[in-house]
Amino acid sequence: MGDLLVKDKDIVVPGEELAIGMDYLPAGGVYRLNDKIYASQVGLVSISGRLIKLIPLSGRYIPKKGDLVIGKVVDTGFSGWRIDIDWAYEANLSMKDATSEFIERGSDLTQYYDYGDIISVQIIHVSGSKIIDLTMKGPGLRKLKGGKIIEVNPTKVPRIIGKQGSMIQMIKEKTNCKIIVGQNGKVWISGLDPESELKATQCIYKIEAESHLDGLTDRIKDFLEGKNV
Amino acid sequence: MYSKRFDNRKLDETREIEAKVGIIKRADGSAYFRIGDTKVIAAVYGPRELYPVFLQNPEKGLLRCVYDMTSFSVTDRKRPGPNRRSIEISLVTEKSLLPALDLSQFPNTVIDIFIEVIQADAGTRCAGICAAAMALADAGIPMKDLVAAISVGKVGDKIVLDLNKDEEDYEEGSTDMPVAIIGNTEEITLLQLDGDMNKEEILEALRLAKKGCSEIHKIQKKALKEKYMSVKENE
User: Fold this and answer.
1) CB under 8 Å to A110, separation ≥6 — which residues?
2) For A148-224, CATH number?
3) Architecture, CATH, for domain A68-135
4) Prediction ipTM score
5) Over the stretch B20-78, which tens digit does the pLDDT of each residue have?
6) Cα angle vertex B13, ends B10, B18, to 5°?
7) Cβ within 8 Å, pair B142-A128
8) What's the gap in Å between the CA of A95 and the closest CA on chain B?
9) Do A62 and B50 touch (CB under 8 A)?
10) How far is B116 from chain A (nearest CA, A)?
11) Hey, which CATH number is domain A3-56, 2.40.50.100, 1.20.1740.10, 3.40.50.620, 3.20.20.240?
């Protein structure tokens, strides 16, 4: 009993049979029907022990608790801000989560974050109907001044960051840019000069385009060092 | 007496099928589907915000379909904009795709599908469903399986697969029946009938439709894989 019909890292499409029998367990992106496991999205198969999971290759950003995202302030209210984080609805940043400073009752909130400001922010709560609460308390969460923002496919973000941040660390060191990668596919880049910013931008687009391929780290390293570009 | 098909096909043979995924850059998912001279494109946008608020469902997302024919898609110019026919087809398309989708991850939001017929030669609603299913998969919407659709029918006294316009207009009587099927569960999600057929004829037609749909499924899956594999082959 228990037949696996695909290999690790295979590209599968919705409705494709992945395994037969009850020996394997469905995780994200797959489902069980009778005694078979099928894919429900376009993605890469990831098998760990008995678990079969799919790493999606397409789709919009779906907010998760704990994600660091880059957002834009789109509204200020009496008790907080509304932030656009690339989900269908704006997220809430309440006054108590926004800053450790004491904010006096009735004070003007735009002196902290104003309309149009770009901030790096973390998701602290996602409710059942996807109402999102944000926090600015944490390492690296702040208003982003200067630099530029590029957009990538949110499904490629893990590859841009790399294992324990190895990929992004390499780009930061080689280009001398400050980079923040949001899980929602927004990347903030700020360098000392336009050339280094351009280099980092090209590098991130290259990762996005070639993320399925083997030996990505080496190729990006060569690219950054100016070899056979 | 209809003994031989106008375009020399076998009775259970479809027209030539071509499918492409990811043709519209700004859409979240898109696809092109051609069966014979019928050409259709579909674009998916979403999940995105849904207004008015009373349409929002906190349990799951809403699916909204728009089917439209371009004014140059038929021999006589079609007046642009929705009409009685296109409103009906939008509705049946939505209902034929919905059973395959799992929208529980997208509460209060809407997923919009726009289907545009760029050339019509019978079977446009079926081609539209095929294109929309691929576009939904391209947009990363979780689904049981792709939905394929094809028309079957009776031309003269023969049961045939995939009628073209000439067969639909056959002067000695023609019946057509569009059928949509979800791949692995073989659920029928669309069944309409224009004309008359008896029980045996309908069963025979359904058998042909299943055969046609399974062929289309293979083509749809291949087209989807091609888009995501192509990156691999560039190196």
Assistant:
1) A76
2) 3.30.1370.10
3) Beta Barrel (2.40)
4) 0.90
5) 999 999 999 999 999 999 999 999 998 999 999 999 999 999 999 999 999 999 999 99
6) 140
7) no
8) 25
9) no
10) 22
11) 2.40.50.100
